[in-house]
Amino acid sequence: MKTILGKSIEEWKKAYPLLEQIMETEEVFWTNPKYGAFDEAIKNISLSEKDVKAAEERLLRFAPYIAKVFPETQAMNGIIESPTIEIPRMKPYFEKAAKQKLEGKLLLKCDSHLAISGSIKARGGIYEVLKHAEDLAIANKMLSLDDDYSIMDNEAFRKFFSNYSIVVGSTGNLGLSIGIMSAKLGFHVTVHMSADAKQWKKDLLRSKGVTVVEHKSDYSKAVEEGRKQADLDPNGYFVDDENSTTLFLGYAVAAARLKKQLDDRQIKVDEDHPLFVYLPCGVGGGPGGVAFGLKLLFKDHVHCFFAEPTHSPCMLLGLMTEQHDRISVQDFGIDNQTDADGLAVGRPSGFVGKTLENLISGVYTVEDHELYALLRTLADSENIYLEPSALAGVAGPTRLLKSLAGQKYIEDQQLKGKMANSVHLSWATGGSMVPKEMMDAYYRRGLQFQIGK
Ligand SMILES: *Cc1c(COP(=O)(O)O)cnc(C)c1O
After folding, report:
1. Is the pLDDT of residue 453 over 80?
2. Which domains are present in the chain?
3. Which pLDDT score is estimated for 436?
4. Is 343 touching ligand 1 by the criterion CB < 6 Å?
5. Residues pairing with 184 in the sheet
6. What is the sign of the dihedral through the CA atoms of 182, 186, 188 and 190?
């Protein structure tokens, strides 16, 4: 008989009845029984606000360089940040799908429109490359912390960095961010792409001098091959999407920037004004880092839900069974086949799952056709075009309202009377770089479906 970590499927299902539906790839909404008070949870986490602040400061040091080499960031003085907008015209669609009134404000965090690589990976991915570059340049006495970092846009620096290589495994977007940033600095950079990665991403990277290695298997294999390659090169550096605290902190910086945007709009988050955040999740670093930053700032007043495709519910399985990276969706007969290429990950980050096991409110899963329906509806109503992965977060408000588990969460957390003051923020993790023909095809696909059906 087939067993997973010594237990049969039947035993697993008995311990976790929701597995039945998860294995049938039905949409589910899971709330985390280990979710707890921030002040307690943070005691068991080795990263702190100080680490996030250090990342924020490092990005400020690099801002003059970024502004110089990526002119599209000049208007923001070299800070790569996305707008937060209201999407009120989605409300009627959500209400229809949830068959009830949706109270509170609807916001969209447009990481789809982040400069340089058009996805949330422009946070963590770029940050990690910059940190590595800074570490090398400082160790070799080419740079000091109080220099104007725009001096790095120079042949001597590019020649120096060309002695070093950077390697990463990716389903696409992380490769774009790491590849573009590394190549700009002068590094040799190799991106190992999983079979899910879109052709245009590979073409774009090659046009920038990045070496792209294509794999016929999924994300885990691409990562494994990348790691092997970097290990062989004494000057090689592997960006470890599954375990990197650097990536994680790069993502976490988003929180303070979001807080400022909310303050500017006089949107309150406090005891009486809960903030619900819905984050598309692949391996977990992006949503995990953002959620960590948000919990540091808003503590128990922010409620972070992760969103995964029904065919790639790796973080859900990892958190629910508490086995984290010891199990994969394939162990449970789930195929990890989804059009949400950014989320096509079969085994979650153990580091993220363990770090946030008491801070994530829950995880829900979304079918691909729902992603397409949301894509089309958001385009029609708000004229915003996202890639399928990013729509997983847009499903959040409806799913919270219409699921029993979501309703129970609201009651248990004593939020029922506060929903009119609440804010629902969907993290739109990517989309602006998708070629037009491809986006048109996504849109046409969406015409076949209606949200909530
Ligand atoms: C990578 C990615 C995510 C999720 O980030 P992880 O760190 O893999 O969890 C979500 N959306 C898009 C568009 C992505 O590219």
Report:
1. no
2. 3-48+68-116+253-446 (3.40.50.1100), 119-247 (3.40.50.1100)
3. 96
4. yes
5. none
6. positive
